[in-house]
Amino acid sequence: MIRGRTSQRDRTEVEIAIGVGDVVLDGILELPKEAHALVLFAHGSGSSRHSPRNQYVAQVLRSAGIGTLLFDLLTRQEEAKDELTGELRFDIPFLANRLKDATRWLMLRPDMKGARLGYFGASTGAAAALVAAAELRYVIEAVVSRGGRPDLADKALPGVAAATLLIVGGDDEPVIEMNQEALAKLRCEKKLVIVPGATHLFEEPGTLEEVARLAAEWFSQHLVRLSHTRAQVAKGPE
User: How far is 181 from 3, CA to CA, in rounded Å?
Assistant: First the structure.
């Protein structure tokens, strides 16, 4: 279902409702003009599509010509339950299934035909993104984790085929170790970047900007450039 549409000369923004089983998840799909790649965002613990950090990263990705989908992994009722119990934010299989269903929904859209897809995950959302990427290994081509908990995707890590970038704050010591251990288990193209002076939420001046820069560079390399290369191969020599 499309709830509303606003378009500008250089991009299109669509408020969407994603039907997943018997629930509906709200999201915002934004496509720069002639975008051939799109990144789905899996937010972290207690967050939503309105996360200012993810919205900032998404804005930078769109400036690089990459489409973005920010959506709620939980319904309002589920969010209320999770605020009291905290159980759903750590239910990685549940969150990964939501992300996979949203990915399949997106792939059915006519304007997504032939688009290269990637995931950007934060905190526990990064674990869900890695699990979903492992199970959709022929669909998801790149993953970026910000302050993620890839350790929670432990058994799925060897099955991830997507090029994976792990970004961790230099002052987020327990999470650095978790990411180093996860990096060793990944068998895909992979990289770990530690941002000096950053804590878990990258709230320090300039640190979130560095995350966005790294993510845009990674997705541009593994989604946008790949898409252009494939298009040239399909077109053939002039």
Answer: 43
User: How many Å apart are CA 67 and CA 33, to the nearest integer?
Assistant: 9
Which of 36, 32, 128 shows the shortest CA–CA distance to 74? 128
Q: Is 58 a residue whose pLDDT tops 60?
A: yes
User: Helix, strand or coil for residue 36?
Assistant: coil
- How far apart CA 237 and CA 205 sit, in angstroms, is 47
């997943």: which residue's tokens?
A: 20
Cβ–Cβ < 8 Å for 195, 167? yes
Instruction: Report the CATH number at residue 140.
Output: 3.40.50.1820
* pLDDT (tens digit per residue) in 94-105: 999 999 999 999
> How far from each other are the two terminal CA atoms of the chain, in whole angstroms?
41
- Describe the crossing of helices 124-135 and 92-107 by its angle, rounded to 10 degrees: 60
Distance between CA 116 and CA 2 in Å, rounded? 22
Boundaries of domain holding 102: 2-235
CB 162 within 8 A of CB 187: no
The DSSP output letter for 20 is: E
Cβ(64)–Cβ(95) below 8 Å: no
pTM over 0.70: yes
Q: How far apart are CA 21 and CA 236, in angstroms?
A: 42
The whole-angstrom separation of Cα 49 and Cα 28 is 8
**How many angstroms separate the CA atoms of 44 and 51, rounded?**
9
Looking at the 3D structure of the chain, how many domains does it have? 1
